[in-house]
Fold this sequence. Notes:
Blueprint (H helix, E strand, L loop, with lengths): L10 H6 L12 H21 L3 H17 L4 H15 L13
Amino acid sequence: MTLRKLVRDRVPELLSEKSVEFRVSKVTGDEKLRFLLEKLKEEADELAKNPSVDEIVDVLEVLRAISEMLNVSWEEVEKRRIIKLMKRGGFKKGLVMEMNS
C-alpha cells in the first residue's frame, strides 16, 4: 500500500539525508487545495490528541497555506477574525449550549 500525503517543503531533503526511499510529486490548483484540506484534518486530529505549541503551529501553517491558495492575505484573515470576535465573541469563556432539536 502506498502512502500519499502532503508534506512540508523540506521533508524530502531531510529524508534523503537519512537514505529513506520515497518519490515526490508536485500538486497544484484544486488538487493542492484538496491535499491541504486533508492535511488540516490530520493536523487538527494530532492537536486534539496532543495539545501543544508544536501542534498549534502545524495547524496554523496549513491554514496559512490554504489562505494563500485562496488568494486571501493573512492580514485579511486576521482583520476578519477581529471583526467576527467583536460581533460574536471568542471561545475564552468555555460556553457550551444545549438545545432541543
